[in-house]
Amino acid sequence: MKKAALLVLVLVTVLGLALSSSAADEPVKLGLGHVTSIAKSQGLTVDASGKAVPPMAQADSTIAAVAFDSDGRIVKVYLDTAQSKISFNRDWTISTDTTAPGQTKKELGDAYGMRRASAIGKEWFEQIAEFEKWMIGKTVDEVKALKVKERDAAHPAVPDVPELTSTVTITVQDYIAAVEKAWENAVPVKSGGKTLGLGHDVSLASSKTAAPQVDTTMAAALFDGDGKVVGVVLDVIQSKMPYDTKTNQLAVDPAAPVLSKKELKDDYGMRRASNIGKEWYEQAAELEKWMVGKTAAEIQALKVKERDASHVAVPDVPELTSLVTITVEKYLAALGEAYTNAD
Q1: What percent of the chain has pLDDT over 90?
Q2: SS3 for 173?
Q3: Which residues contact 232 (CB under 8 A, 6 or more apart)?
Q4: pLDDT number for residue 113
Q5: How many whole angstroms from its chain centre is CA 84?
Q6: More confident: 140 or 45
Q7: Tell me, what's the pLDDT at 24?
Q8: How far apart, in whole angstroms, are the C-alpha atoms of residue 184 and residue 86?
Q9: Which pLDDT does position 336 carry in this prediction?
Q10: To which H or E segment does residue 214 belong?
């Protein structure tokens, strides 16, 4: 009798621990963070031989989509980097093809070309996969506490722990900072999240003579077992890099932080031009809310209308017409890509 009671107690304890562990692993929050810099942009310079080196604009956006459990531990994480370079002709017109879609390091895969320069023979996407794996189960504070070392000026924070030294030799400070931002910005999600994806659209199309611009639209999304959205976060980074054609140098501080539309909030300045009196972040929140409970296919099937040449896909359904007047084609596409990338 005592043995039977003991067995029951053991089974109940094990089952309770399993259920507790399962509940702890359930994503309850979703965050989207980024670190964007234009610091690598250069004005006109002269090399050692006296030859003029033409200006080049560059925007680097490190992005993190992260799902957290009720204890603040990372359940799923998706890291990526968009590195966009823009060159000029002598008359300051853009020589780079601004119609070509930008690709992230994950999309480039082996074409990124890190393997041949890597001391461990691993491409960027392979190293970042190992870093993502290392983050699982940790809190943001634990991730921030990672021991790192400076390899050289371009690599000031390379992992210096046994679990990573043979698999990750890239510098990781921006990935950690993006994950921290994701935690700070995290929002509650519905239960049932199984897969996490990050989608994006990187465009140079807004660039003009002497004024290159990179627009990065992002969607972090959690999906349930049926492919329905249980949580989504949308955002846009507009990296503007105007040049002074008299000095041939950047007309803005390259060290200044680049903020997304959500980070800018009311400073983005849409409210005064909006016919519904809503700022961008408010309209994006309504679109996010509408997406929850729908599949990627249902979201991309949203009925839209063209308001003008700059607003070619404004929602045309009763639930959204009084709440969302921004053009949404890139958000829908980014959500679709998030589903394709979800794991």
Answers
A1: 87
A2: helix
A3: 30, 219, 220, 221, 222, 288, 291, 292, 335, 338
A4: 95
A5: 14
A6: 140
A7: 55
A8: 32
A9: 98
A10: strand 213-223
Residue 330 confidence (pLDDT): 98
Rounded Cα distance, 42 and 45, in Å: 8
310-336 mean pLDDT: 96
Token pair, residue 148, equals 């790192």
Residue of 261, 253, 248 whose CA lies nearest to 185: 261
CA atoms within 13 A on the CB side of 49: 3
Contact 64, 211 (CB under 8 A): no
- The total of other beta-carbon atoms located within 10 Å of residue 101's CB is 11
Which residue in 193, 199, 327, 178 sits closest to 257, CA to CA? Answer: 178
Segment 119-125 mean pLDDT: 95
Q: Tokens 């909006």 belong to which residue? A: 274
Domain boundaries, the chain: 26-42+61-341
pLDDT of residue 4: 53
Contact 197, 343 (CB under 8 A): yes
pLDDT score of 11 = 43
